[in-house]
Write a structure and sequence with these properties.
about 120 residues, mainly alpha, two-stranded parallel sheet, 5 helices, about 50% helix, about 5% strand, globular
Length: about 120
C-alpha cells in the first residue's frame, strides 16, 4: 500500500482499502497504515467471496500468469519478483476487460483527464 501511495503522488478524496477478514488485513499494523495514509478501511462479509471478487481475480491472475510459472530460490527473490510484476506488468501493460481494455495506469490517467476537462 505504501508503494501504491508513493507512486500515485496524490489520491482522490476518500480512497477505500477493501479486503476480506483475514488477520493480515484486520491487524493493528494495517489499521495504523491506513490511518497514516488517509485511507478508509472496509472488509467484506464473513464467508462471502463475492465481496472481494476483484481481489480474488487479481490473486488468481498473479498466481496463474506469474508466480506458479517460476521457481523461487529464496523468499526475497519472490517478494521482489511479485512487486516488479505488479508494477511493471499488471498495472502498466496488462489490459483489463473490465476497464475498457486499458491498463490500470492508463485507465486512472483517462479518468483524471476526463475529470480535468469537465472541471
Amino acid at each position: 500500500m505504501t508503494m501504491a501511495f508513493v507512486l500515485r503522488g496524490r489520491l482522490p478524496a476518500q480512497v477505500i482499502f477493501h479486503a476480506d477478514r483475514g488477520c493480515q488485513y484486520t491487524s493493528a499494523q494495517i489499521a495504523d497504515l491506513c490511518r497514516d495514509l488517509g485511507l478508509l478501511q472496509s472488509v467484506g462479509r464473513t464467508g462471502v467471496c463475492w465481496d472481494c471478487a476483484a481481489t480474488e481475480s487479481f490473486w488468481s491472475t498473479l498466481k496463474t500468469e506469474f508466480y506458479h510459472r517460476r521457481v523461487w530460490a529464496i523468499k526475497p527473490e519472490a517478494v521482489a519478483g511479485v512487486g516488479r510484476w505488479i508494477e511493471e506488468r499488471f498495472n502498466r501493460l496488462r489490459r483489463h476487460s473490465s476497464i475498457q481494455m486499458m491498463s490500470p495506469v492508463q485507465y486512472e490517467n483517462h479518468l483524471h483527464q476526463t475529470a480535468t476537462l469537465a472541471a
